[in-house]
Predict the 3D structure of the following.
Amino acid sequence: MQTHLADFIRDTDKGREAEAILRKCVHCGFCTATCPTYQLLGDELDSPRGRIYLMKQVLEGGEATAITQRHLDRCLSCRNCETTCPSGVQYGRLVDIGREVLEEKVERSALDRFMRGALRTVLPYRNRFTPLLRLGQAFRPILPPPLKRTVPARLRAGTWPENAHGRTMLVLQGCVQPSLAPDINAAAARVFDRLGIRLVAAQDGCCGAVSHHLSAGDEALHFMRRNIDTWWPYVEQGAEAIVMTASGCGAVVKEYGHLLRDDATYAERAARIAALTRDISEVLRDEDLTPFRLAKPQRVAFHPPCTLQHGQKLHGVVEAMLHGLGYQLTAVPDVHLCCGSAGTYSILQPGIATRLKRNKLQALESGAPEVIATANIGCLTHLQSETETPVKHWVELLAAS
Ligand code: SF4
Ligand code: SF4
């Protein structure tokens, strides 16, 4: 694709990056076949190719309008299109840049600004999010069913072993996960303990993904620098890896090196942190998991989050591990499609998110599983809101075996 970027962006880092990505696109349209929003809405402007055209227009100095922004807002950032694209177009980076430019050029409605501001003000801070969640949970029994579904039931954490081991790894606690599903990281710690690894939760807060996906770049970088400062002493003491139990966070922490590449103070450490970051499946696939073999098979439908299969390109890793341990994985049609959670998307685009969730649950439940397993807190909470089948993080299954 030929490009002629406008003066306002041409000679900037973002402009150069966007231009290199745009030039790879050959308009073939293969990506439209796997784009969830194009499948649902049937509008070329809600497909990757259409959005690439829209972003190109704006970056070349064309008018940026609320309609352009609406089509970018409807994108799930699922990166399914990246997996499909034969030309290696890094759509995820392009849409991040496109959204930031649109954010500067188009004024959002007051309601939109309020919603996005509220999400950024509450979600990344556990001391703000947890009291609100507990309030909702206290009233949950008397809420009408449609509202009740939106408030997850309160869950408790199991034990977190503190045994000393020769090997130590860090784990990202995250922002909403400890309040919504506190046993996920504790389950990971119990599994690691049985493998002779001490799992340390050194960090308590957001990885920066919430701000990053809401186009608040500086705020996201603030969270990233804070996490690097917290983790660095442990890295210097020999922590082997920084483990992610939420694939959405993992996809962003692995980008720290890139996102902070121009920060003279943090660039080197950010690159090292990114290199040490592993999804929990990447750690466990290299360990001897014999102690976790199932005595009695369990039927499991696995939902690989987009941030795992498309963002981190780890498709099939968890499935192979569960299969090897004796879990009976049920067939799931269209496993590449997003469930509609997509970070804050389910709150900002509830109509599309609900349709995607219902399609996904139908696919997941078509094989009559006893449990649905996934790898990201957003998908887990989103799916559980509309099914009686238990939805768990897959490491919780291992911890219970
Ligand atoms: S598949 Fe890749 S090259 Fe083809 S239109 Fe989509 S982004 Fe462009
Ligand atoms: S990221 Fe997902 S929703 Fe967005 S254009 Fe690509 S496939 Fe479509």
Observations:
- The beta strands are 167-172, 197-203, 242-244, 277-279, 299-302, 328-329, 371-374, 391-393.
- Residues 35-37, 48, 51, 75-81, 91 surround iron/sulfur cluster (ligand 2) (CB under 6 Å).
- Residues 217-236 form the longest helix (20 residues).
